[in-house]
Design a protein that fits this description.
Chain lengths: 514, 351, 329
């Protein structure tokens, strides 16, 4: 990658860097969160959370999607402001109005995509925002950075461009930067997603070092094995509330039970599975900047409903998009009803009977500004040049009735409620589909609407359509699927039969058990 | 409640009034009574039949270009290159006019066709630079505008120069059968006028009621969703650009075959940029286009008379239209100004 | 042509290229902060006129330059306000402003066309100007040239050697990071857009008060667009931008000279060059050609070559920023 910045004069390094300057200095900071509340509209992201963090400990913050972990940490690190509640650092009330304020008070956060400047060199990125002096004191800063790096055992190149570094290296740099600015509390948000095993080990040993020196470390994660490996104590959030805490070591089942609500076992559902394969994946590999799927095999039969469990960003979306043709394959093959579609474009697969229902209704699935009727016209095969408005109005009305959408053909989709938008996404599906790929089938729908949607989907399944869907709702997964597998870090677990599994088992699979 | 509705109804007029006030102030500052000034402009535009015809003759190419720009705007594209597309259309038409010996009935349709093809190709070039080369259509358009002007100058002072020697003013004049038939003594070609009207209606109908129009609309509003619904974004964007280029090129041909009698240095006269401003005002309301273009055309024609009468520079007309567009751009959205509608939506990040 | 003549021609090229160097420097600053100012051409026209008229009326070039800088700052303020505060399309606003600037300059300047006015006085620096070759080129010039060189030097130093420069760059590259480090991104964008605009205004007046004395309609037309192209060609770096401006000036002079020898062809080729270069650079940006080229070169030279070839724009260029918007995507 091109580093676009001017070349910086080589900073004179210390003649020999054998012995690193001794020990990290710093006070010991007590952190106390009292009754933190944060609402986003009707959603209670944080609903009165109180917890205390002692210095020198590594804490894990566990919870499903939407439990409130990220929001809470963003409040602590100054990115959001709590609606009510109090934060005390060392017994004194802290007003953390911005990330810079928070860091000045001693709280630093490393995001999943670390906040650095890709185009800058390491030293410049380190210097940004460091002090108010106009002229850059390169030599001093370089020394400080190298000293810190030495203490932590990191190897860094001052002149390298940030964008040429790996995610793990960028994390290290942020860690050093926060350390050098006097951070006492270190928050890491899902740090092990997208880094190599080696880098993970290095990161963990650095975090242990920090805690030994009296710093507080908070690890936001869903990977239970890692949390158990690293942390001293865990807090578990669910639906915006603190539902439990435990000292490590703690049995996995206990953690899982705290994270996921108990799900009643269900009776065996009539199996509509047919013998022929609808979808066949061999050695599938997909790769994005952050996440990779390697060498995945999967078979979904016609008339089968296959559920994908796992937390956001674990690979389900990647899989669904790769099957849809929205992401190129890095390796492996995809067969659709016996035909190799690995190289087919999204549009071609769509014509062949693959449908993709995205999770972002207005971002990806619907076009704000267009009416329902116009959506139906767009989604249907073209007939002639002129859009037959009368035909499509009737057709749209029929679908409105069928899917029980509250709206009229001429209603613009952005005027529909979230639930109705979701129904509209389904209303746009063609008949006779072979495979439906759904990211979040019933997000934002009330129970009755969800019921109705699944009933309609099942009617298609009866006709032989296969469904591959991802969901954060364990209830839905167990109730609707024939088989379920869980994703964690781009790796899919074994598939279990929905009628025989439990929330416990699913929780373990989500946590990383293979 | 009533006051709000009243305000909303009045609001569109406010920028117009403000622009008129600014222009009036400028007139006064230069010693001309605003009433006299506006009067002169009105007279200059519609004072007598010849003048009105002149306004219409200027209106035609601008309307053609604006119609094309609505197509690209619908697709979410910023076709600044429209100037160059007008120029290349004019160049193509000029080429045939000067080089092809054929009867009028054959020559004219060929000229118009050539102009459309040239404009479409020129726009297609900018389009490919964008879709394949990821070059923003603004900069691609700017560059191609520059190249088109340079090509024109080269032709004028070189291969196509008048027999008496290059003057950098224009090429050799076109033979009579290459020119569009004009109405009386005016510079208006009734044929081109008709074509412009047909085009406006055609664009309106296409955008409103056909599949290509619907696809463009989807593409412009949400390229990602449109793609997922089956719209081939790249191809549609390219086609939209080429359609605009064809119409713009047609406008260029009209300029060079009726308004002028030869290819001139500034053949486009800034019509492309003016058409962009027209479209900024009109938004997606295609049927409003001809009226706004008429307004622009009248103002600009009128300001020439203003110059003759009062010795004030004719750019005053451009100031009037420019201020108007600027005000509409910045302050046109009443709801945003009063703090309603688009509030910052706080959404919880995915946990 | 003997040596003294050659040096004189080169000195003249440097002088002619100076306004463009100033404008390119100003726009580079603005774009580094993340804002594209499409109104350059109109701003320069209006500023050229304002500079000349103000200078003429007060009989002082200083007043003229001040007025021109004011005009530049005013236009860029409108752009900044419309795009940052009102969140409107900065390309649209810039575009309308450029047309408006053209018309305003023609109208307001109509009584002052083609009259003589004040002009910047030549100022050779003693001692330095006697250095062979470099002396007459760089030290026996109008003060404007000295200003331009100092400006470019200061800008470079500011951007790459100071803390405020880092903050400026963060606003254009990744505003979320700047925000997290305590930078008030939008306020910073206002400030630097104004500074950049003022410099562009100065560049306009540099024509009417020095290079192309006086005022007439369309005096500097086209130069603003060329400046935009050169900013891109210069890789958003003040030094390379200045080099680009000089090259452009040189090519124009070369074209003028060659025109006497070969009438038509050369003019076209040289006029087309900045546009072709701009397209070329933008194509390089969008593709991976440069990376593949660099891979062909032996490893030892790679960093240097990369340094020379870099062409990426500031990553957040043209995109509005709201503090507190979701950063995890």
């Amino acid at each position: 990658m091109l580093c676009k910045e001017e070349s910086v004069p080589q900073v004179a390094l210390l003649p020999n860097v054998q012995a690193c300057p001794s020990g990290l200095v710093g006070g010991k900071m007590q952190v106390s969160l009292q009754n933190i509340r944060k609402y986003f509209g009707a959603v209670r992201a944080n609903d009165g959370i109180s917890l205390t963090l002692a210095p020198g400990r590594i804490y894990g913050l566990l919870g499903e999607n939407g439990a409130g972990k990220s929001t809470l940490m963003k409040i602590l690190s100054g990115y959001h402001k709590a609606d009510s509640g109090r934060i005390e650092l060392d017994g004194r009330r802290a007003n953390l109005g911005s990330p810079a304020d928070a860091l000045a008070s001693g709280v630093g956060m490393i995001y999943q995509d670390p906040l650095d400047i890709p185009a800058m060199r390491v030293l410049d990125n380190f210097l940004l925002g460091r002090d108010a002096k106009v002229v850059l004191s390169r030599t001093t800063a370089a020394k400080a950075l190298l000293d810190q790096a030495c203490k932590m055992g990191f190897h860094i190149e001052l002149e390298a461009c940030i964008e040429t570094l790996t995610l793990g290296e960028r994390q290290q740099l942020e860690l050093l930067r926060l350390l050098s600015l006097g951070a006492e509390v270190f928050i890491l948000d899902e740090p092990t997603t997208g880094i190599s095993a080696e880098q993970k080990e290095s990161l963990f040993s650095s975090l242990r070092k920090l805690s030994e020196e009296g710093k507080t470390v908070i690890l936001v994660s869903h990977k239970l094995p890692e949390v158990q490996e690293l942390c001293h104590q865990v807090f578990v959030l669910r639906r915006g509330k603190l539902v439990g805490q435990a000292d490590i070591p703690c049995p996995t089942e206990q953690l899982v039970r705290m994270m996921f609500e108990e799900v009643p076992s269900r009776q065996k559902r009539r199996s509509l599975v047919r013998p022929e394969a609808a979808l066949d994946l061999h050695g599938l590999a997909v790769s994005t900047e952050r996440l990779q799927i390697k060498d995945m095999d999967l078979q979904v039969r016609a008339g089968e409903v296959f559920g994908l469990a796992g937390l956001e960003g674990s690979g389900q979306r990647l899989l669904l998009q790769a099957c849809a043709g929205l992401l190129p394959l890095a390796g492996g093959r995809i067969w659709l009803a016996g035909q190799d579609v690995s190289r087919w474009s999204y549009h071609r697969r769509r014509d062949k009977g693959v449908a993709y229902v995205p999770s972002g209704r207005l971002e990806e699935g619907l076009v704000a500004g267009l009416s329902l009727m116009e959506h139906v016209a767009l989604a249907s095969p073209q007939r002639g040049l002129v859009v037959d408005r009368r035909f499509f109005t009737q057709e749209t009305q029929a679908r409105i009735d069928h899917y029980r959408i509250v709206g009229r053909p001429e209603t613009r989709v952005e005027a529909l409620s979230g639930g109705n938008q979701q129904r509209s996404l389904y209303a746009l599906l063609r008949e006779d589909l072979r495979l439906i790929l759904i990211e979040h089938p019933t997000r934002g729908l009330d129970v009755r609407s969800a019921e109705w949607i699944w009933e309609l989907l099942l009617r298609r399944v009866e006709q032989g359509t296969a469904i591959l869907f991802a969901s954060a709702d364990l209830d839905e997964l167990i109730e609707r699927s024939d088989r379920i597998a869980a994703f964690s870090g781009g790796v899919m677990s074994r598939a279990v039969a929905a009628s025989e599994t439990s929330a416990d088992e699913l929780g373990r699979l989500i946590g990383g058990e293979r | 409640m009533n006051r709000e509705r009243l305000l909303r109804g009045i609001w569109p007029v406010v920028p117009v009034v403000a622009a008129l006030i600014v222009t009036g102030l400028l007139l006064a500052a230069f010693g001309v009574s605003p009433l006299d000034g506006f009067g002169a402009m009105l007279q200059g535009a519609f004072g007598d039949p010849t003048r009105t015809l002149s306004v219409l003759a200027f209106w035609v190419p601008m309307t053609l270009a604006a119609s094309g720009l609505v197509v690209t705007l619908t697709a979410g594209l910023w076709n600044i290159g429209v100037e160059g597309q007008i120029v290349m259309g004019a160049v193509a038409a000029s080429g045939l006019a000067l080089k092809l010996d054929a009867p009028r009935g054959v020559l004219i349709p060929l000229e118009l066709l050539a102009a459309m093809v040239a404009g479409a190709l020129w726009a297609g070039l900018a389009g490919i630079l964008k879709t394949r080369g990821k070059v923003h259509e603004i900069f691609g358009g700017l560059a191609l505008n520059g190249v088109a002007i340079i090509a024109t100058n080269y032709l004028i002072s070189g291969p196509w120069q008048p027999p008496e020697g290059g003057t950098f003013r224009g090429t050799a004049p076109f033979p009579a059968q290459a020119m569009l038939p004009l109405y009386g003594e005016s510079r208006l070609s009734p044929l081109s006028f008709l074509i412009a009207l047909v085009v406006v209606i055609g664009v309106y109908l296409v955008l409103r009621g056909t599949y290509p129009g619907l696809r463009l609309k989807g593409l412009g509003k949400n390229p990602r969703s449109a793609f997922l619904l089956g719209v081939s974004s790249e191809r549609e964007a390219l086609l939209a650009m080429m359609a605009c280029g064809a119409l713009a090129g047609l406008g260029g041909a009209v300029r060079v075959l009726s308004w002028f009698d030869s290819l001139r240095q500034s053949i486009s006269g800034g019509i492309g940029y003016l058409a962009l401003m027209v479209v900024m005002l009109a938004g997606f309301r295609v049927l409003l286009l001809p009226l706004i273009t008429l307004f622009f055309s009248a103002v600009l024609s009128g300001s020439i008379t203003l110059q003759l009468r009062t010795q004030l520079h004719s750019s005053l007309g451009g100031i009037l239209t420019g201020v108007l567009v600027l005000l509409v751009l910045m302050f046109g959205d009443l709801r945003q100004l009063t703090g309603r509608a688009s509030g910052a939506k706080e959404e919880p990040a995915d946990e | 042509m003997n040596e003294t003549e050659l040096v004189r021609v080169l000195a003249s090229i440097v002088l002619q290229a100076t306004p463009l160097m100033i404008a390119v420097c100003g726009e580079t600053i603005t774009e580094r902060a993340g804002i594209v100012n499409l109104s350059l051409d109109g701003t320069m026209l209006l500023a050229a006129m304002a500079g000349f008229v103000a200078g003429y009326l007060s009989d002082s070039v200083w007043v003229g330059f001040l007025a021109a800088a004011g005009v530049g700052a005013l236009f860029s303020f409108i752009l900044a306000f419309g795009s940052i505060r009102l969140r409107k399309d900065q390309y649209a606003i810039g575009f309308v402003l450029t047309l408006l600037g053209d018309d305003l300059s023609a109208f307001l300047g109509q009584n002052y066309t083609r009259i003589p006015g004040p002009h910047v006085v030549h100022l050779g620096i003693p001692f330095l100007r006697d250095i062979p070759l470099l002396g007459p080129l760089f030290f026996d010039q109008d003060p404007l040239v000295y200003f331009a060189f100092v400006l470019i030097g200061v800008t470079w130093w500011w951007l790459f050697r100071t803390q405020p420069g880092l903050r400026l760059r963060s606003a254009g590259e990744r505003p979320e990071t700047g925000f997290a480090r305590g930078v008030n991104v939008n306020r910073l964008r206002y400030v630097y857009t104004l500074i950049g605009g003022a410099l562009v205004g100065l560049a306009g007046a540099a024509y009417s008060l020095d290079i192309k004395l006086g005022w007439s309609e369309g005096h500097t037309r086209g130069l603003g667009w060329i400046a935009l192209a050169i900013v891109i060609f210069g890789g958003w770096s003040p030094l390379r931008g200045a080099l680009g401006a000089l090259l452009f000036g040189a090519s124009k002079a070369l074209a003028a000279a060659l025109q006497r020898a070969f009438p038509q062809v050369s003019v076209v080729a040289f006029n087309v060059t900045p546009w072709v270069l701009m397209i070329g650079v933008l194509l390089l940006v969008g593709s991976d050609v440069t990376e593949r080229l660099v891979a062909l070169i032996p490893a030892r030279f790679r960093t240097q070559v990369r340094h020379v070839l870099r062409v990426t724009p500031p990553r957040a260029l043209g995109k509005p920023f709201t503090p507190g918007e979701s950063i995890e995507k």
